[in-house]
Amino acid sequence: MSDVHLRLPATSANLGPGFDSLALALKLYLYVDARASERVHLEATGRDAEICGATENNLLLRTYREVLASHAREFVPLQLKVRNEIPLGMGCGSSAAVRLAAVALASHFGGLGWSRDRILTEAALMEGHPDNAAACWLGGFVASAVEEDQVYAVSIPAPADWRAVIVMPDRPLSTIASRGLLPETYARKDVVANLQRVGLLTAAFATGSANLISTAMADRLHQPFRAEACPLLPRLLPLAGRGGIAGVALSGAGPAVIILTITNDAASEAINMASKEIKELGNIEFLTCELEDTPVAF
Q1: For residue 286, what are the β-bridge partners?
Q2: Residues 74-123: tens digit of each pLDDT
Q3: Is 296 within a domain?
Q4: Which residues of the chain have pLDDT under 70?
Q5: Buried b (16+ CB within 10 A) or exposed e, 147-156
Q6: What is the DSSP secondary-structure string of the chain?
Q7: C-alpha span between 97 and 85 (Å, rounded)
Q8: What CATH number has the domain bearing residue 267?
Q9: Domain range spanning residue 274?
Q10: What is the pLDDT of residues 119-136, one digit of tens each?
Q11: What global pTM score does this model have?
Q12: CATH number at residue 16
């Protein structure tokens, strides 16, 4: 069987109002090179290499095994080289990238022959929501939904000059813990407010209307409830609309925050502004990246 080479981007989901439906692909990557082998061998480099390279409780290997087993396919040992740039446990779509890689490998080495749409759907269903997986697989600004175990998604190319600044604390936050902070029900007025802003945010990306992003990224469904566990958020939200900062939102389930800027120079200024607001919160890391519009090659 031929070797497989994958490059899967990080993603920032929700983007304020788009809870479990909107996400943006970023130029930070998980690289996976795989070939059939007589035994499993995993070599990992890059960010969190020790976690990515551990064979015990490894999400990539576990998902690969599970997909093959659930479709009655023989396990094919792989020689894997993984290079990771995506922060783990920060709300940057690391698990979606890994699950997509695992499903794609199972499709190839297990002889399943799945289409791109099937690979996306399988990975998204494992994730429990389609936003990160859809943006990772398709690139761009992606709106997605699930209907009867099928993922539907549309990718819109992001303006070329826009940049994302990811602001990260020194401790991760699990998606499960973050979801546990959310209420079971919402007031109608809050749901309507979010629906309005999801439409506005989608139109703003489609037309490159940076002046609308600050208003469009306002949220009432998840950010207010996650702010206590994500202290960067309330400090940085007031920066939205200032200078070249188009918008600010929690990245996925947090704890990282995404600052969306309209130019690379504005991204540098955004880091300076953000640093002043959060200087007493400990060790903070900033990552500036371009937006990724290219689908994953497979």
Answers
A1: 167
A2: 999 999 999 999 999 999 999 999 999 999 999 999 999 999 999 999 99
A3: no
A4: none
A5: eeeebebebb
A6: ---EEEEEEEEEEETTTEEEEEEEEEEEEEEEEEEE-SS-EEEEEETTHHHHH-STT-HHHHHHHHHHHHTT-----EEEEEEE-SPTTSSS-HHHHHHHHHHHHHHHHTT----HHHHHHHHHHHHTSSHHHHHHHH-SEEEEEESSS-EEEEEEPPPTT-EEEEEE-SS---HHHHHTTS-S---HHHHHHHHHHHHHHHHHHHHT-GGGHHHHT--SSSHHHHTTT-THHHHHGGGTTSTTEEEEEE-TTSSSEEEEESSHHHHHHHHHHHHHHHTTSS--EEEEEEBP-PPPP-
A7: 11
A8: 3.30.70.890
A9: 163-290
A10: 999 999 999 999 999 999
A11: 0.95
A12: 3.30.230.10
**Could you tell me the two tokens for 270?**
């955004």
Residue 175 one-letter amino acid: T
Q: How, if at all, do strands 78-84 and 41-46 pair?
A: parallel
Distance of CA 56 to the CA centre of its chain: 24
Q: Percent of the chain, pLDDT > 90? A: 94
